[in-house]
Amino acid sequence: MEWIRQGEVSFPRTPGEQDSIRAWRPWVLEEADATLRMWYTGSDGTTSRILTARRPPGGGWERLGVAIDAGSAGDSDSYGAESPCIVKTPGGYLMVYGGSDGEISRLHMATSEDSYRWDTHGTIMQRGPEDKGGANHPCLLMTGERWWLFYTGYLGSGPGQRSVLVAADSQTGASWDRVGAILGAGGGRSGGVAPLRARGLEDHLPVLRQRRRSPIRIALATSSDGLSWDRRGTVLEPAGQGPDGSSVHTPCVVRLHDGSVGMWYAGIPIGDEELGYRICSARFPGPWSP
């Protein structure tokens, strides 16, 4: 499986923008007219917000501003909103995202009728043993039988915390039943995993495997039932002197209308010690056969 790198996603920028320090954790949907919509985490060095952009067919990316801002003082997302995941529903759009109150991150929900104006609805799910240290990086997947929610659960707090991939399911998307941890860091390594956001690839959920003391790579695992997973190895590594020469992180994969598969992810160039992630893209011509 060979991905063709397409470099950094270019947004028109000026100093002081809300993603001037960091842009990462993208989620992309393709509209019926082949317009691409992107939601992503932007940081100005103080606060993380969920920003949005669009790319019309044949055109470049255009900023559309803030989709979800940090909450007010005392809210569960008062320190920032990040890691958006969006699905289209019969009634509009549903977003699950990560939000922090400065001590712990939790999963939150928002809804929209048109994907431009969003109403937030607070946290979802109570914490369990798999995410007692926090929850983030959600991935929603709608199948014919039920909804799946995959996310990163942190087993503790502080630097070097271990994480596992946690699953929950739902009949309607309104209330969720915890399934539990389904994947952790393999081979005895410390570190953890986060779900790759996959749309249009319902039989396969790729995941990001994060390893401490080595570059972060994008790896793949597949499942036929959402419960038992087979690791398939690394699919994208840091490479070259470009925007992703040091690290690749937080990917989103979409099967496009033309039959190809697009990946959007965050990269860090070699020598960047400030974690100044920028969104990059890659393309897999197909056919998709992991």
Task: Describe what this molecule looks like in 3D.
The protein is globular, with a radius of gyration of 17 Å. With 290 residues, the chain is mainly β. The chain has strands at residues 4-8, 22-30, 36-43, 48-55, 62-68, 80-89, 92-100, 105-112, 119-123, 134-142, 147-154, 163-170, 177-184, 191-195, 197-199, 207-211, 217-222, 230-236, 247-255, 261-268, 278-284. Helices cover 0% and strands 52% of the residues. It starts with a strand and ends in a 6-residue tail after the last strand. Strand 4 and strand 5 form a beta hairpin. Mean pLDDT is 85; it is low at 187-192, 200-204 and 206-212.
Write a compact overview of the structure shown.
The chain has no helices and 21 strands. With 290 residues, the chain is mainly β.
- Report the average pLDDT across residues: 85
- The number of helices is 0
Report on the biggest sheet: 5 strands, mixed
- From the N-terminal CA to the C-terminal CA, the straight-line distance is 7 Å
Helix-strand string: EEEEEEEEEEEEEEEEEEEEE
* Rg measurement, Å: 17 Å
Task: Give the overall form.
Answer: globular
What structural category characterises the helix and strand content?
A: mainly beta
Low-confidence stretches: 187-192, 200-204, 206-212
The helicity comes to: under 10%
Strand content: over 45%
Tell me how many strands there are: 21
